[in-house]
Amino acid sequence: MRWPTEVLGPAPGLKELNVACWGWLAAVLVIQFCFPLLLRIKAGAGWIHIFPSDFVYFYGIGRIANGYPLAKLYDYSLQLKTFNEIFPFHTHGGGYGPSPYPPFVALFFSLFARFSVVPAFFLWAGVSLALYLAGIVAAVKGVSTGERGKVSIIFASALAFCPFLQDTLSNGQISTLAVFAVGFAVMLERKSRPFASGLALSMLAYKPTLLLLLIPMLLLTRRFKAFGGFVTGSSLLALAATAFGGLQIWTSYARFLGVFSRFVGFKGQSTYDLSMYVDIKSFMQAVSGGWSQAELVFFMAVAISMAAWLAVLFWNSAKSGRPAQSMAWATALTWTLLLNVYVPVYDSALLAIGAVLTLGALRELAWKAAMGWMSFLALFTGVVSWELETIAQSKGIQFLPILLAVFGLSELYILREAIRRGSARAAL
Fold first, then answer.
1. pTM
2. Band of the pLDDT at 260, cuts 50, 70, 90?
3. Are 24 and 165 in contact (CB under 8 A)?
């Protein structure tokens, strides 16, 4: 890809790109948030129009942890009662599903539930933004992406990404915990502290589905100390929850997951809006309007084939140098989003870490052509993510999985090339 100098003149430099990216972020904030909010206030609209309904789930389970024995956390009728006391969603044409998070998540949000809901939301929004930025800073330090101008573009693009800004930050979701955990895990690994890296990664125990490929990646790439750190950290979280709720909390949690599985389609058709998800399974269901036996077979064939290919690449990347190790992380993150059975759109905020790792690996490989392509793909994904959100709301189909698949396939190609180059250097 070459810049059309005959038509547009000289190619923009880093300064121009920075102005464009930060200007884009400012435009998104004004158009998507400030302007609509001012119109609603002028029209006399209340808090109902902007209430972050997802935050009710976390604030609600925190309130249950404060006011009831922890064993009551997975009483769905109590959850519904608590959520509707906070915000009566059912009176406005909606309703709450079950909150399936492990008990230590409720213990964490019990701290926020000591405040009234509005201050608690803004407090969490501040913490969430700090976690997101800290995770990206850690990943950037881990892979040494280069000069400040490029790092500035990374931050502007990451902040303006719709799955973060709209679906996570303004909605009160907690996927920034995952961004923070993975970013620090990568940084600590680069500092030759594998056990601490695994401890950081154990924060993902709050949502085990995000570990679908990360744990196999740790084992196949022989990151055994990191795996030990993950097991230790997860065990400490489980022990903390057991200390507050007793062993019976886990029996209640296991039963509750069975209830939750019926809502999200683990066993049949999802009762949730499929446009909320970015995994391949949900995309296929949304496009076809159902879930036939043939589609299930096709999905399983694709998932098994990709998992086998990833397993081979992970195994071969163990001794192929730093670029291959970075790409193992990146591909595991992207394909976790695609091959999973329950990935709401806000979890795709993890793409920010995957993009940083990919660009860092390409910098170490001195592969300028691929870096240009992946930079363009990352920026393009960020820009069109807002339009894809609009399409998802109007058509009921989330097309972000298509771009994620392009990104993931490109990462697989880069990982294979990084392994080849690493093996060639080792043979010299």
1. 0.92
2. confident
3. no
